[in-house]
Amino acid sequence: MPNNEQATTFDLTGKVAIITGGSQGIGEAIVRELAGSGCDILATARSEAALASISSELETSTGRRVVGHTADLRDENAGASIVKAAAEAFGKIDLVVNNAGSTKNGTLFDVTEEEWADGFGVKFFGGMRLSKAAWPHLKDSNGGIVNIGGIRAETPTGVSVIPSSVNSAIAALTKALADQGRADGVKVNGIHPGPVRTGRLKATQESMAADKGVDQAEVERQMIANFGVTRIGEPEDIARLVAFLASPLAANIHGTFIDSDGGATRGT
Fold first, then answer.
1. Is the C-alpha dihedral spanning 214, 216, 222, 226 positive or negative?
2. Rounded distance, CA 262 to CA 252, Å?
3. What phi and psi, each to the nearest 5 degrees, are found at residue 108?
4. pLDDT in tens, 226-253
């Protein structure tokens, strides 16, 4: 686990952030990090109960307002609904973090039409619609967008055809929005996580351990070797990068993706 005692907390006091997929994994870590840095937050997910639990806990521990909003980003009206709720709750929007959406691994012949539609519907179209709906507010606040993609955008493989395609599309959208953002004063960046210790990764490790007849620690050692990384990432690694990109320290970073993958991507 990361040493949180040595972690930097960025001062984002008074900022308002929308975070999608905020009830678990990377999204939950982002909600916790930004609330701890002084943000008021509207977090979205499909689970009302999970959002309510996190909101109550963080409002008590941080003193910030954390509003949960249930939404299914496959709904073409979800983006407008989320923005309306945030604007009514806080009066402004400074940051949008498009984090929601998991994509099914598999070859072209393994995955279904429904899995293609779900991958693009939540992660790409959901993020695009939310960014479009929030743009006037971000323009007013000189705010920003952080898109969470994935390293398969840069290293596509035949066994990850949906993640490779969806995250490549997100990377292209981020670059295109950054061009618009230069004119409108909206900063747009992204993060490509590598393997991160989420519930989904844990389930994968447990399944692999059962199939191979080894313990989960051995599966993790094999994963680290196969990915060529220093360690499996933690959700907090991504959350702190989001906070950095939202801070004044990143004022000159625009239209960029940062790889947080322990060295898995070997580009120049």
1. positive
2. 24
3. -55, -30
4. 888 888 989 999 999 999 999 999 999 9
Inside any domain, residue 165 = yes
Up-side HSE of residue 221: CA atoms within 13 Å toward CB? 5
Backbone angles phi, psi at 251, to 5 degrees: -60, -30
Domain match, 107 and 218 both:
no
Burial of residue 208 (number of CB atoms within 10 Å: 0-12, 13-18, 19+) = middle
Residues 214 and 126 in one domain: no
Which residues span the domain enclosing 255?
11-196+233-260
Average pLDDT over residues 75-89: 98
- For residue 43, give both structure tokens: 């977090």
pLDDT value at 7 more than 90: no
164: enclosing H helix or E strand: helix 161-184
Residues 99 and 225 in one domain: no
Which of 202, 261, 196 shows the shortest CA–CA distance to 26?
196
Whole-number Å distance between alpha carbons of 89 and 108: 43
Average pLDDT value for residue range 63-79: 96
> Kindly report the CA angle at 167 between 264 and 151, in degrees rounded to 5?
5
SS3 171: helix
Taking the CA atoms of the chain, what radius of gyration do you get in angstroms?
18
Q: Both 157 and 48 in a single domain?
A: yes
Cross-strand partners of 196: 233
Q: How many CB atoms lie within 10 A of CB 87?
A: 18
Q: Which residue has the tokens 């061009």?
A: 179
How do residues 159-215 score in pLDDT, each as one tens digit?
Answer: 999 999 999 999 999 999 999 999 999 999 999 998 898 878 888 888 888 888 888
**Cβ–Cβ under 8 Å, residues 110 and 164:** no
